[in-house]
Amino acid sequence: RGKNETKERNKHKNTRRRLGERLDGNGDGNSDSNSSSSSNNNKRKVDAAATESSAKRQRAANGEGKVPKKPKGVVRAWIDGCFDMFHVGHACAVYQASCLADELYVGVHSDADILRHKGPPVMNEQERYAAVRACKWATKVIEDAPYVTSLDMLDEYEIDFCVHGDDITTDENGVDCYEAVKKAGRFKEVKRTAGVSTTDLVGRMLLMTKDHLSLDVKQRKNEPEDDEDSKDMAVLSGSQVSPYTGVSAFVPSTRTLMNFMRGLRAPRPDDVIVYIDGAFDLAHAGHFEALRVAKSLGTYLICGVHSDVVVNRKKGNNYPIMNLHERILSVLQCKYVDEVVTGAPWKLNETIIKVLGINIVANGHSSDYQPEPGNPALDPYSVPRKLGIFKQFRSPLPHLTTSGIVERIIANRLKFEQRNRKKQKGEIQYMEKKLGVKLSSPLKTPSASPAASPSSSAIKKLQHQ
Q1: What is the dihedral of CA 110, 113, 114, 116, to 10 degrees?
Q2: How confident is the model over 354-370, as pLDDT tens digits?
Q3: Burial environment of residue 61 by CB neighbours within 10 A (0 to 12, 13 to 18, 19 or more)
Q4: How far is the C-alpha of 266 from the C-alpha of 39, rounded, in Å?
Q5: pTM of the model
C-alpha cells in the first residue's frame, strides 16, 4: 500500500509539472505566439519567485508547518477554492464558514490544478496563498489543496465538514467537486455573495465600464448612467449565460459591514498608532504585505481608503476597478488592520493627525501613485514629514500593483475570455444533466439574455439535488 501511495504521489507531481509548463506557455502550439509572449512569461516567473520568497519568510515567522492535532471538542471546518483576485465575495464565504466552526482551514488550489479544471488564473499561486493567509477568519491556509475535495483529505486534517457557497463547482469532466463529501453528509452550504466575482472584476477591466463607481465620479465628468456598460464578458463573447458566472451589481449592506468589523478594537493609551492610506484597489497580496509591515511599526494600524473620486482623479480611466464599499470591506477582512477611515483625504493635515492620535504615518515605496516630496503643494505627506512622523518602507512585493494586474488581464484577454466560456459551459452542462432539460442557447445579443437564463425554481431544485 505504501509503495502504491508513493507511486500515485509521484504521478500527481509529474502531472502538475507538465500542467505548470502549459501554464507558462499559451498552450496553443503556436511558436510565434510563444516567442512573442516569452518576456511576459519570464516576468511572471520572476514575480512568482519574489512572492514565494516573501511568503516563505512569513510562514517561517508565523511558525507554520505541521498541522496541529485538533483539541478535544473543537469543531474544525474546511473551505477551499481558487481565491483568484481575493475579493469581497471570497471574504464573505470565508467569514460565513468561520461562523460554523471553532477553526477554519482554507485550502487554496495550485496554478496547475486551476489550469486543468478551469483555465489560467490571474494571480499566481504564491500571490493567492499570501492573500488568503492575510484573512482574519482563516485559522490555517493549506497550499496546493486538491481541486476535487475528498473524504481522505478531510480526514487527514481532522475536518468535521466542508463548506461552500450555493453555486456550482465542477471538475474538468463536469462532475461536482463536492459530490463525495455531500454523499457522506459532511457538507454545509453558505450563501454566495451576489454581484461580485473574479469574472465581474475581469469584465470591468476589459470593458472599461464605470457603472460600478459612485455617482460622484460620473457627475464630475458629466457622464450619463448607462446600464448597457454592464454587459457580461461572456455575453460579449457569444456564450451561454450561467446564473453563477454572470455579472450583477454588488449591493453593500450595514449587516455585511458589521460582520467585517467584528474583532476590531479601540486604541489603548499605550498603543503606537500607525496610519497608512491608499486606494487598495483590487486588494492583493502586495497590499496585505504592506499592511503587515506598517503594523509592525507600531501596535495599532489605521487604514485610510481614498474615495472613488480621489482615485479616479489621480489615475483616470475607469479606476478604481472596485468601488469604495468593496475596497473598504477588502481592507476590513485583513487581520493586520485595526481601524478604517472611509473616504480618507488625499492630504493629511495636523487636525486629522491629532484627532486620530497618529504617531507614525507609513507609506510603501511601491505604489501606482507616489508623493512628490519636493513640492509641498502636491505632496500628501508634507505635514507628517514636517512633524517628523513620516516613515517610508520598502514594499515586500514591489512587483505587485493594481495597474500591473490590469496589464495582465489586457495582455491575456483571449485566455481569460476562453476560461470564462469554459467555466460557463461546464456549469450549464452540469445543470442540464441534473435537471434533464435544455436551459439555454448561445446568445447573439445582450437583449436575448432574459430567455437564456434558467428559472429560479430550476436553480433551487438543482441546489437541493
Answers
A1: 160
A2: 999 999 999 998 766 65
A3: exposed
A4: 48
A5: 0.71
